[in-house]
Specification:
With about 190 residues, the chain is of the alpha/beta class. Helices cover about 45% and strands about 20% of the residues. It is built from eight helices and nine strands.
Length: about 190
C-alpha cells in the first residue's frame, strides 16, 4: 500500500515467536521485495499486542540435542536474516507495536528506523536461558556503544521505550493511544 511493503510477524498465539519457517519466509519476502520497483520501503510489525517474544521455545529446546552442524545452520539462518535486513537496499522500518524481546529486539535493532509504542518493553533476555545475543551484539554496539550494549546483553533487563530512545536504540516513541495514526502520518512523510 502506498509503495510500502508490510511484513507482519503472524504467530500471535506464540507472541510472534521466531522459528525457522518464519525466518525463511522473511528471507523469501525480502528477496521478492528487492526486485519490485513498485515498493520503496518495508515495514515489519507484529500481529496482536506483541512485536515478537524472540525465538520459539520449541526451537530453543531442540538446540540442546541438535548436532554441531544443525546449530551452526540455525545460527547462520539468524545471521542471514539480520544481515539481510541491515544491508537491504530499501529502507526497513520496525513498527514495534508491543514488547520486542530477545530475537524480536534483535529484529528491531537491525532496521533502519525503529518506531515504538510507548507501552512496549525491549530487551535482550537470552542470557536468562544460557545464551548471549552474539549475532545482534555487532549491530547493537554500533547503535548504543560498547558499554551500554554489554549492560543490555548481560543484564537481560527489559527497558522502556523511553529509555531505549534516550540511549539511541530506537528512533521514535509514539503514544499507545495514537500509535497507528502517528505511524501512518510518519510513513506518509517519508514518501
Amino acid at each position: 500500500k502506498h509503495r510500502i511493503a508490510t511484513l507482519t510477524l503472524n504467530r500471535p498465539d506464540k507472541k510472534n515467536a521466531l522459528n525457522s519457517e518464519m525466518l525463511h519466509q522473511l528471507l523469501h519476502y525480502f528477496d521478492e521485495i528487492e526486485t519490485r520497483d513498485d515498493i520503496n520501503l518495508v515495514t515489519i510489525t507484529g500481529n496482536g499486542d506483541c512485536f515478537s517474544a524472540g525465538a520459539d521455545l520449541a526451537a530453543l529446546k531442540a538446540l540442546q540435542t541438535n548436532s554441531f552442524d544443525e546449530n551452526l545452520a540455525d545460527s547462520t539462518l539468524i545471521k542471514n536474516v539480520l544481515a539481510r535486513i541491515y544491508f537491504f537496499p530499501k529502507p526497513v522500518i520496525a513498527l514495534v507495536n508491543g514488547h520486542a524481546i530477545a530475537g524480536g529486539c534483535g529484529l528491531a535493532t537491525v532496521c533502519d528506523i525503529t518506531l515504538v509504542k510507548s507501552t512496549a518493553k525491549l530487551g535482550y533476555t537470552e542470557v536468562k536461558i544460557g545464551f548471549i545475543a552474539a549475532i545482534v551484539s555487532v549491530f547493537l554496539k554500533d547503535l548504543v556503544g560498547e558499554k551500554r550494549a554489554m549492560d543490555l546483553l548481560l543484564s537481560a533487563r527489559l527497558i522502556s521505550a523511553q529509555e531505549a530512545l534516550e540511549m539511541g536504540l530506537i528512533t521514535h516513541v509514539f503514544s499507545a493511544e495514537t500509535f497507528d495514526t502517528e505511524i501512518e502520518n510518519y510513513l506518509q512523510n517519508l514518501q
